[in-house]
Design a protein that fits this description.
This protein is of the alpha+beta class. It has helices at residues 102-109, 128-142, 149-166, 183-195, 203-210, 214-225, 229-244, 252-259, 264-275, 279-285, and strands at residues 5-8, 27-34, 37-41, 47-52, 56-61, 67-71, 76-78, 85-89, 93-100, 117-120, 122-125. Helix content is 41%, strand content 20%.
């Protein structure tokens, strides 16, 4: 376990298989449908969270004795660190599971004035902000993560900060606003965005360029530009797409690829949301 993170355990019934490309993604997301009967959950050496998608009840076999649980759809879990669990499901269950990389939590700790944070074990948790963030991750998973790793970096950073601030033992003090970024620093960060619009830029790279932690960078960038880094990046991608569409020989598929969008459908969706018109309509207006 990382030195900066530890857990207070009240076992919860979730785990997740490590099948995603972890070197590329700040989180793993999975949907699990379990029938009635036994469910053996492997230990996972990372922070794991559950979003309950259907009501269910189960008998939970643990070292401190059995426990009967009933949870409702929409509730959340912060799961026990690196511990297997055995459950006897009394009815089928659907659960969305998120593994949050330990590095993301360590980055969030840079905004805390404590050297370590103890995350509290929870099940049946009601937390509107945490639920909203996990629903975004679930939606992205269902869409094939077409918004890209840069977007996931921002959601993962927000989720990590929320966990540390609201679901840890003691009261970590999260730093207040860092103010806007210095103009020269902001120009360097925007230049880096422009140079890497095609999609391989990560949020922590921009934070390092600014000399800030990831969370501080997000707040400082938003105060300087009025937009989150991801919103700003989408605007720059749309601007590039508009420039490329002036070439009548460039297909919309080529425009999407050269502008950092996952595909033509992704380009069309974002382009219409930002400009109010489809790429085809924009091209016809030129």
């Amino acid at each position: 376990m990382n030195q900066g993170l530890s857990f207070i355990s009240e076992p919860t019934p979730f785990a997740i298989g490590q099948t995603a490309k972890r070197e590329l993604m700040p989180v793993d997301v999975a949907e699990v449908a379990r029938p009635r009967g036994n469910w053996v959950l492997p230990a996972v050496n990372e922070v794991r969270l559950g979003l309950i998608l259907s009501d269910y009840s189960a008998n939970w076999h643990r070292s401190r004795g059995p426990l009967s649980i009933s949870v409702s759809a929409g509730s959340l879990s912060i799961c026990e660190f690196n511990q297997p669990r055995r459950m006897e499901m009394r009815n089928p269950a659907n659960v969305a599971l998120v593994l949050l990389r330990n590095e993301i939590l360590e980055q969030a700790l840079q905004d805390s004035r404590q050297p370590r944070v103890e995350l509290l074990e929870r099940h049946g948790l009601q937390d509107q902000t945490m639920r909203h963030l996990m629903e975004i991750l679930l939606y992205e998973k269902r869409q094939g993560f077409q918004s890209g790793a840069f977007f996931l970096d921002g959601i993962a950073a927000a989720l990590a900060s929320h966990l540390i601030h609201y679901h840890s033992a003691g009261t970590p003090v999260i730093a207040n606003s860092v103010g806007g970024m210095a103009p020269a620093t902001l120009r360097r960060c925007i230049a880096l965005m422009d140079a890497r619009l095609e999609g391989d830029l990560r949020l922590d790279e921009l934070a390092r360029e600014a000399g800030l932690s990831t969370s501080h960078f997000i707040r400082g960038f938003r105060e300087s530009t009025g937009k989150t880094p991801y919103q700003f990046l989408l605007d720059r991608r749309v601007q590039r797409a508009q420039t490329l569409m002036r070439n009548p020989r460039a297909s919309l598929t080529e425009v999407a690829e050269s502008s950092g969008f996952a595909n033509q459908h992704h380009l069309s969706s974002v382009f219409r949301r930002i400009t109010g018109m489809t790429p085809s309509a924009y091209r016809s207006s030129l």
